[in-house]
Every structure is written in structure tokens, then in C-alpha cells.
Amino acid sequence: MSQRRLGVAVAQVGAVHVSDSRQRTLDRLIALLQEAKSRGADFVVFPELTLATFFPRYWMSQQEAEERYFEHSMPNPNVQALFDEARRLEVGFYLGYAELCPKEGPFNTSILVNKKGQIIGKYRKVHLPGHSDHKLDAPFQHLEKKYFQVGNDTFKVWGVDEVQMGMCLCNDRRWPETWRVMGLQGAEFVALGYNTPSINIHWPEPVHLRMHHHLITLQASAYQNAVWIGAAAKCGVEDGHHMIGGSVIVAPTGEIVAQASTEEDELIYFNADLNLGQPFRDHVFNFAKHRRPEHYQLIVERTGVGASLA
Amino acid sequence: MSQRRLGVAVAQVGAVHVSDSRQRTLDRLIALLQEAKSRGADFVVFPELTLATFFPRYWMSQQEAEERYFEHSMPNPNVQALFDEARRLEVGFYLGYAELCPKEGPFNTSILVNKKGQIIGKYRKVHLPGHSDHKLDAPFQHLEKKYFQVGNDTFKVWGVDEVQMGMCLCNDRRWPETWRVMGLQGAEFVALGYNTPSINIHWPEPVHLRMHHHLITLQASAYQNAVWIGAAAKCGVEDGHHMIGGSVIVAPTGEIVAQASTEEDELIYFNADLNLGQPFRDHVFNFAKHRRPEHYQLIVERTGVGASLA
């Protein structure tokens, strides 16, 4: 079998505080990009909402959020240096940011950029977690359902420098539908960025489970769809609010082949064999041969839990 | 929150050789049932195709297979003692067997039996692995696609002694659709039996991955649907053919709370809190609030991999 490889780098990003300047943040991302190139990377995964603090933890007006934390276009002068450096280094990347789009609504968005610095694909987060009301008794908010609208398109796969790439964002990773829709389009690599608070504000969930759930869903999803996954955290303590790290590269075997060991800016790398998933696609997960959509109808017929079919 | 508990036992069954008598096998199952009761079990999970050797590894005529390995009715005189003992002990159970059904076709089947010894539900395996041709160069066969027809109904959930129970078989566990269809019917507990050869006859897959894939898919699926899972292996070396053990009980947190440590007859037990999944169903996996079926259409529109939607 011919060798098809992708040098995958995941750029974990530590805390970005409210007071941090865009220039300071951009310098950190560019440093990670340069380190990625020096290791042999073809592609770098940055986190969700990379360019600012994870602002959905704060209650504010929509107008204030949009003025402070949203990008009005992409690229724009405040991120151009990252695009320029990526093009110079000939490295593609995935980047998450808050997208202002007056016609369709504000979105939690990610993009795929090729080695020429061109935006090839855009994804708007489908599975927005949290709430839209002000929870006065919570230690912090999780207002993604307030500041963002649900993505107006499904999960897609794009050819980026000859690799079939999909993308999703944070909470999307917990939903097997996310991965299957991309698997059915022949994804070979999926980029994912996330901001995951270590404390669950909805019930007293043991903190260690947050990392456990992150890892088991990625491992199972990589295996079940025979895809490589690069998952980048924004993590550490942002203005007193802790988020998990655990950035990983997961193989189509479901094995973690690289994992960040800090909660700071950290670059992990793996030289990924894109053919590793092929025997899975040919045999155990030969979808055409083994899937039975006639028995899966409930997945699209129902949204919530309903009566038993028995 | 009121306490609702289910004493879950998983009865792993070691090798059942071609030469073993039904009486010998039944005695082993009854001993496991009695041990389960002594630990406090309300329900016992037995494996897939529990009553005989894993015969799809052998090439033979359909007639020979049906005469040697299929049950012509359930219960029947050759298994009645298991039903009788379960009713006497007031323990429900799940059992996998080869079902002869001349009208609809032979199936790889499982049943749910309540504490009164009544069959409450029947499931016929949907995701048949393997092949139907005779692979002369393989070390053994995997002829489920020859001896069985694809199940003619979807995954369901039944009320068994006041617990909402679903069931599936072996290879079904690798497919997230299996679990989601049951999750959408409010399953609280899912029983699974399996026979998993440690050697993959289709390509030289590292043997350790067979156990890895078994565990990560169960852990992720339990979490993603907030269900308890009881998974029972038939395992060990049957007439020279090795199958993995690894029978487990998995909590809705995705944590393994009990795991078999042998490849022989072995009983594992856990006193399962049926409310443990409730905060997951109320928040992170509140399906009605967070699922977006409008973006999942591809899951039922396509069987195999197709073109990108981008």
C-alpha cells in the first residue's frame, strides 16, 4: 500500500485572560505554528474560540459580547499575521473563533485553511451546550445558547491539500451522529477544538470524569469511523476558571498516539499514516456491506426520548 | 432522589467445545445463575450463542448447522431447566441462541426473561459480521452472514420487572446507531452477549486491539446514552480457537465498575443505581434540548460512504 502521511500537530493553548491583548495571543499562536513546522507538521489544529477568553462563562449583553469577542470577518487585520505565517511556512490549519454574521446570526465557528493560506471550509457549531438564561446561583455561566445560534448546516468533509478533512467543535464530540455524518463522507482526518470547564455547573459531577468522557468519546469515534482525530484544548485557569487540557491525537485504531502533558501552550505531533484506517473501512466498518439504515430511522424521526417500540 | 437499584450479574462462559453435551453446558449456566442469586442479582446476562460452541467458525451445510446448533423453539426441553431454576430463584436473564424460524429465516437471537421465567422480548441480530463464502486460506471462518439472516426488526426496549431494558449482540456494540436507537426509547440497562475471536481473519490486526475496541465502544456508548451495560463473553479456547474475555459492567458515567479477570466461567456483579444516568439525561444528554436531527439525515439516507457534501 502506498504511503500517504499527514504530519499532524495539535496546538494546545493555555489560558487567554480577559485582559490579554490580541497581539499577545497571536504571538503565542504563531510561536506554536513555528514549532509545529519544525517538527514536520503539514497541518495544525488550534482550539475552539482560540482568540479570546472563553467568554460564554460571563453574562453580558449580546452587543457587548459581539463588540468584544466576535470576528467581523475572517481573515481580518487582527489575525492576518497568523495566516501570513502559515502561508510562509506552508502549513495548513484549523482555527475556532466567534463569527459575527449579521445576515444569518452569530455562530461558534471553525475554519480549515490550506497550505496556501486559503480558507477551504467553514463549520458552525451544531451542538451548543449550556443555557441562555442567567444562572445567578452557578459559579459561572455557560451561555453558548445565548450568544450563538445553532449552526445552519451539517457536518461536512473538504479536500485540504489532498486529505479528506472534517471538523467539529467541543460538545459536538460527545454526539456519535457528528462523527458518523463525516464518516459517511469519507473523512480521513477530523479537527476538533474545545474549551471544557473542569467543573460541571449543572450537577456535582466528579471532576475526573470530564477528562474521562473527553477521551473515551474521541477514542470510540475515531475507531467507529476509521478516522484520525486531532483535538486541541484551550485550557488552564482563565481568570480563575479552570478548563481541562488533554489535547490528543487519536488513531483510527482508537489508540491515543500523542497527548499533552500540561495545561499550557503545548505542541504535540504525530506523523500519521492515512492508510491505517483502510482495513477498518474495508472490513469491520465496511459501511456499504454492514450498515442497516432501515433499522436506524428513529435517529432522525425523533429528537428526544419517546415511547418504546416494543 | 428515590433509590432504584438493579442487581446486575454478568455470567461469562468459558469454552463450550463441539463435543460438550447440552446437559454439561446447562449445568454450568445453572451454577452461574445460582452464584448470581447468592450475590444479590436481580438479572443475569449470559453470552451470545450461549448453548453451543461458536459454530460460525466452521464451514458446513445449512442443514447440518440447523440440526446441530439451532433451537427449534424457546424454551424447549433442552433448556427448560435453566428457565425453571431462574423462576425458582426469581432472577431474570438475557440469553443468546441460534433461532430456527422456518417462516422468517434463521437468526442470531437473544431474549429477555423476567423473574417469573416469562420471555418478555426477543431481538434478532442486525449487524452480522463476517462473510458467507468459504475462505479456504483463513485459519478459521466467520460465517454469520451464511448461517443467519439479518434481523427483521430494529433495536427495542422492554419493561422487565420495572426496568427499561434493551439488548443487542456482539458486533452490534461497535455501531453507535445500535445504542442511540435504544437511548431514544429510554433504555436504562442494555444486555449484550458476544463471541469475539482474538484473531482477526481479515487483516493482521494486533491482538490487543480486540479487547481495546470492545472496551472503548462500550464505555463511550454507555456514556453517550446514559445507560448501564452488562456485557457477557463466551471466551477462552474452544477446540483450539481463542476468543477474548473481558466481560464487563459499565456505568452511565462510562466507567467500568466490574470486569472479569479470567477466560473461564466467571460471575461478576454490581449493585447498579438506576438513577445514576438521570443527571446526564437531564443536562448534557438532554436529547430533546440538544439533538439536531435535521443535521443527521445522512445517517439514514446513505448506507455506504459517498461524496462529500461540501
UniProtKB/TrEMBL annotation, chains A, B:
PROSITE patterns given in the database record: CN_HYDROLASE (PS50263)
Keyword Hydrolase attributed: yes
Key words, A-Z: Hydrolase
Matching Gene3D superfamilies: Carbon-nitrogen hydrolase
Domain CN hydrolase residue range list: 6-276
Organism superkingdom: Bacteria
Gene Ontology terms, MF aspect: hydrolase activity
UniProt-recorded name of the protein: N-carbamoyl-D-amino-acid hydrolase
Origin species: Alcaligenes endophyticus
